[in-house]
Target: FAD-binding domain-containing protein
Amino acid sequence: MIQSSYAPDSSYSPELASSYDVVVIGAGPAGSTVAALVASEGHSVLVLERATFPRFHVGESLIPETYWPLKRLGLIEKMKASSFPKKFSVQFVSDGWKESAPFYFDENDPHESSQTWQVERADFDKMLVDNAVDRGATVRTRAQVLEVLFDGERATGVKVKLSSEDGETETREIRSKVVVDASGNSAFLSNRMKLRIPDPYLRKGTVWSYFKGALRDPGKDEGATLIMQTEDKKSWFWYIPLRGDVVSVGCTGSMGYMFPKGSTPEETFQRELDRCPAMKKRLEPSERCLDFFTTKDYSYKSSQAAGEGWVLCGDAFGFIDPVYSSGVYLALKGGEFVADSINEALQNGDLTGETLGRWRSEYSAGIDNFRKLVYAFYAPDFSFASFMKEHPQYKPNVVSILIGDVFRPEVAEIFTAMGEVFPPTEENVDVAR
Model:
């Protein structure tokens, strides 16, 4: 089973004030980062979370650049002291069995940030939440936000349904100067304001589960993330080693291909496993220890990042396909960007969308660097091996994106040489089995 250091159904139930400087919707990595960094500046912050902790969440693999937000949050020593498996590299497998050499992060930068971790999100997210509380934020779980309140175009707070452990409920209005939507893929405010724009090239679906006793590589490679493409690039698997001899294994492909009418998640997973000999070999000695999970249609961006008194953060602003394990890093980094804009806005008394969303251009450029490399990964006629053979000078650019160093403008130079590379859309993808 997935390990957790915390007792089940852990909740936060403090008494709440009628108003705060900032209300954050969602206590995932983005929301907890915003809360910690804004509360550290002396502002009153309330985080409203629908679930209780620890809570299950996929997205276990951290890329090296997560080191810097975690350091700013004061959590590096806790991560070092944890039992999370250490991750030194990522390795790619094409056509179901052709293994590339591992990309060792310390070959790009020998700094200790080049070693990262594979985490169980239940414990990792709880660590982030506890850190926000330690820094002065108020966190309330069992809190379902029903509505963001507006006075004209200006957000003024939220309406929230609070539930107790015995099932009693209470609906309250809580005022704030700033409302942060960090609600993850549910994108609470973005959806209600019709800001969400799906990526037409990344309409993907995923089936995943957890396996105990799978084959692992020895030594330094034991904690490596493996990305394995199946035959003809119709799908790909992730393989993420976790604690307790458990691995997270998922398969992603176009939605119509992954979820044909009448097929179960288990049947889809087994069908694709049969097309990936390298993954099948690793899973032969293992036993599945949880049911299969599915996610559908999850790459998107928002047409607006902020308005007067409100701002989107992390996955609520946009999400990119998980092939390069960018999700947690972008949530943490996005949390930093948003927190800095809020602190500036509160200090100057300027709660306009221009100030609260001043990070959008830089953040979006970083996401686009991930996005374009994802497009190349899916493009059936593009070969990274051939491209790198022809353009070896761009290997540092690829490694920079793989580790998450995507906010330097020069990183994007690789895409000039690469040209316009797009994967097939859902409408023209071959879904024959």
